[in-house]
Structures are given as C-alpha cells and as structure tokens.
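Agenda item 2: delta-amino valeric acid complex prediction
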Amino acid sequence: MSTTGKSTTTVPPAERTGAVNSHTEWEALEEVVVGRMEGAVFPTWQSSMYPTVPESSWALFREKGGSPFPADLVAAAEEELDGFAAVLRDEGVTVVRPDPCDHSAPFSTPDWTSRGGLYSAMPRDCLTVIGDTIVEAPMSWRCRAHETAPFRSLIKSYFRGGARWLPAPHPQLTDELFQATDRQEGWSITDFEPVFDAADFMRFGEDIIVQRSHTTNDFGIDWLRRALGSDYRIHCLDVNDPHAMHIDATICPLAPGVLLVNPDRYRPSPLFRDWEIIEAPKPTLPEGWPMYLCSSWVSMNLLSLDERTVVVERQEEPLIEVLTQRGFRCVLVDFRHVYSFGGSFHCVTLDVRRRGDRRRYLN
Ligand code: DAV
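Presented output:
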C-alpha cells in the first residue's frame, strides 16, 4: 500500500477491498492517480468555450490550438506535480502516473477535425471512480475526445485486478451538440447526445451531486443515473455560476457533515440542510497571474487524505487559517503553476482507492 514504508493508512486485511474502491471525497486515501503536464498543448477552439474560459484565452486558443503551451510554464507545473506526488507518498499514499503522451497530434472524425488534444494533467475531468467502477466520461470539448488514452494502461491493470470499467457512449460531437450561435444566452451545449465531464460530479457515498454545466448536459446526467442503477441517487445542485464547468471549485466536502463552499456560487440546498457549511475565503492569487482555463477559485479545489487532513496550496493563507481553526490538518504544497492550466489538487487526481464502503451520508 505504501511505497515509503511510512504508512498512515494501515488497513486490516479483513477490510481490504478490491484494486478500485472509492465512494467519497474524504475517506482515508490509499491509492491515487496524479496527472502529468508534459506534452500539454493549447486546446483547439470551439464556441462552447466562450462561457467557460477567460476572455484572454479566446484569441489564443483560436490561434495556437494544438501547439505546445510555453515550455517554462509546463516545466514549472510538472515540477509542482512531482512535488505533490512526493508529498502524497510521504503521507503513505500509493501514487501512480499516466503514460507519457504528446498531445500535439491532430485527429478527426468524418464530421470535424481537432488540431491536437490537450493534456494528461486532469484525470478528474475525464474519469471518475464510483465504488469499484471506473467511468470514462463522454467529454464535449472535441480536443478532449482521446484524453483517457494515457490512462488506459492503468485502467486495464485495474480491470485485471477486479475493477469494473464503464466507458460512456462515445459522443459524436457534431454541430448539433453546440448552440448554433456564439455567445448565446443559456447553456452552450444542447441535449443532442449524452455528454459530461466527470468533474461536474461529487461523490457522497450512495448520493452523487452533479451540476448542469457548459460541459455536462441533462442527457449525460440521465445516462450516468441509469448506468449506475438503483444503488445510487444522483441529485442536481442549483448553483450560481454562469460559467459552470466542473463542480469542484464550487463545493468541496471535507468530512461527513462538513462542506466547504464557494460563497459566490453556492446556493443553500436542502440536500445539505444538516451540514456545517464553511465559506471559503477569497483566493490569494495575484492579479495578472497567467490563468488559461479557469478562475482563481481553484484555491478551494482540495484533495482530502482523510476526514481531517487536506492538501492546500501553500499561499492560500486565509483558507489554511479557516481550515486549521476548524480542526483540519493542512498539508501544504506549492501549486500556482498548475493553477495556470485549469485546476488544482482535486482536478489533477483520481482517487482509485479509499477506505470504506458504500453508505448513505445525505438524508
Ligand atoms: O473556474 O472555478 C475550476 C475547475 C476546473 N476543473 C473554475 C473552475
């Protein structure tokens, strides 16, 4: 379980479950995938990006889609990812990484062409683990159509170890999926076919919370609901986020009954009526820091090691203070260069094994 011998997650043999077992965002973490930044290229522009990526990226992606991100930024982010992986190993967690992958190869279908892929940095976006099942998400950005490829050897080895493997129907991503005119009001994707990004879902045992977003449609939510069957309840959370893409900078469950929320986006929900709500302080990222893909609220995109330990960016002092006062141990890691690429600790990981079994946490 631990590669360092310094295990903090000793599990009695009788409680050991399969190769893949993860029901929540907070139970004791045993094994995790950490993404890689090497090989990252600018996304190929499509109109559904208007509402979700910063305005400064619109022209850039149109012009540079498929060509590598600046090498110095990629190297700085890669160093932070390696540092994060080392800290996790020191904490007794087994860390695995995807295969190296150059994302600059163009690809096409009979209907469209993409000038390249994107990256292997954010397994949370393209994959989720629900119990013993690895789900491959049907992503709506064309440039992300092959994003699970560098994770396939891992998925195959987990399958051989007993995991279930559930790829969603391969989306066609034809023009019918996208709103006909650019920058239209409302969602930028239609219900033409099921699509979702895995990061729009948050796991609470038998309950899974999802947000409708510019990458996740109702058809996609219905597909996952039916695929998982009656063991799970999927609830849509109404959030205040016109830019919605991924729920993990909006809510972050830290322990049973404790929810960290983005005060600008969270709307009180009856789902959490019995929960303690902690409002995340404002992010500390300075103005002008390069942010290609998302907002500075990735400050609250945390990875829990167990229900009292959480990994936080070293410079988010106000958040560290709030969490420490509330009794959490904060493990500090430098991660601002990773922020530039659209995510933080939750985005860059896929927790494949946490202690615990399927339970109900929401009334
Ligand atoms: O801009 O708050 C962050 C999550 C990206 N995976 C945002 C979205």
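Discussion summary: The longest strand covers residues 29-34.
Owner for follow-up: CH.
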